[in-house]
Specification:
Layout: H1 4-23, H2 27-47, H3 54-85, H4 87-105, H5 110-135, H6 138-169, H7 174-212, H8 218-228, H9 237-249, H10 253-278, H11 287-301, H12 305-325, H13 329-332
Helix pairs in contact: 2-3, 2-6, 3-6, 3-8, 4-5, 4-9, 7-8, 7-10, 7-12, 8-9, 9-10, 11-12
């Protein structure tokens, strides 16, 4: 027979499950809103000197965030749609591939030429077929952005109170809570500055190289390079490397060599020099965590999961490490056995 505590736990678990079901469709946008709050927190603290109203500060930052999200997103969608539908861009890419196939065929490696053509066709079909699944419908995107901005506004306005309430509900000592807060903050900084900023800068610089050396469909490939740049050392070269080789095989020698030198000297060294500086004094997020987070995040949450997935996985790993480090020593080692009489 269930006691009063048993009934309470039953209803607690039941309503917790229902709450998870309600939040799950917009969960990545909630996390993204919290992430943006953290990103804009230094600016919000500076605004406190000039604007004393928390509501006004939160409103201004929400308006700024809306502009920063909307314009790049709309521009990116327009450019990608234009490049995918541009017959001139498609003809240029197909011409580059045909010239590369001919170069390979003349060297008795026809199987590589066939593999290259098949790879391009499958890749193009994959991109065209999965864009709707990746980005979702227009309504889903609009709803997600609204939830993200809504969460951003209230966490900017009442972030300290909300975080204090969350910490109050955690049944741990103040020392452990302070350490937990520090660990989560460290992971957030590593993901934002060590991963997101590096990927954005490296992909953008690589995209400039694609434009300079006249690679077809440069904007689509730039977006792909930004996403792949989340993978340290190997991400960006997966785009500019094959593009340079295609140029060389197609007989466009100077453009191919130029892109190879540009990528090896400039783009690759952004990863070698910038990433360590950006994550200095912060938690190092392992590349395996980033890779699994990206793949799992996009599978579960779609496009937003590309950012949210690594963040969730990295925080989980850090919490597990934190849990082991802060376990009381007496709970980790068994008591000594007393000698039997």
């Amino acid at each position: 027979m269930m006691t009063g505590v048993g009934y309470f736990l039953f209803f607690l678990v039941a309503f917790l499950s229902l709450t998870v079901l309600l939040i799950w469709p917009v969960f990545p946008y909630v996390i993204l809103g919290i992430l943006l709050t953290y990103l804009f927190h230094p600016l919000e603290r500076r605004l406190q000197k000039f604007i004393h109203s928390a509501s006004v500060r939160a409103g201004l930052l929400t308006l700024l965030t809306t502009l920063l999200i909307s314009f790049p997103f709309v521009y990116a969608v327009q450019r990608v749609t234009r490049e995918l539908g541009s017959q001139a861009q498609i003809d240029r890419m197909q011409g580059l591939l045909e010239a590369s196939k001919l170069w390979l065929a003349n060297r008795n490696v026809q199987f590589l030429a066939n593999w290259l053509a098949e790879l391009f066709e499958q890749g193009q079909n994959f991109i065209l077929g999965n864009i709707p699944n990746l980005f979702g419908s227009v309504f889903d995107i609009a709803l997600g952005i609204f939830v993200c901005l809504f969460v951003f506004y209230y966490f900017t306005k009442q972030g300290t109170v909300l975080w204090g309430g969350i910490m109050e509900a955690i049944p741990l000592s103040s020392r452990v809570k302070a350490g937990l807060t520090q660990e989560v903050t460290s992971v957030l900084r590593a993901i934002i500055y060590g991963q997101m900023m590096t990927a954005l800068i490296q992909g953008s610089v690589g995209g400039i190289g694609l434009l300079i050396f006249q690679v077809p469909q440069p904007f689509l490939l730039t977006l792909l390079m930004i996403f792949l740049s989340f993978l340290p050392f190997v991400g960006a070269p997966l785009v500019w490397g094959p593009a340079a080789l295609l140029k060389l095989m197609a007989g466009q020698t100077w453009q191919g060599l130029g892109l190879l030198i540009y990528g090896a000297v400039l783009v690759l060294n952004i990863d070698n020099l910038l990433r360590p500086r950006l994550i200095a004094l912060h938690s190092q997020v392992h590349p395996v965590v980033v890779l699994i987070g990206i793949i799992g995040g996009t599978k579960v949450f779609g496009f937003v999961g590309f950012l949210v997935g690594p963040l969730i996985f990295a925080i989980f790993i850090q919490l597990m490490r934190f849990f082991v480090e802060y376990q009381p020593q007496e709970t980790l080692t068994p008591p000594p056995r007393t000698p039997s009489k």
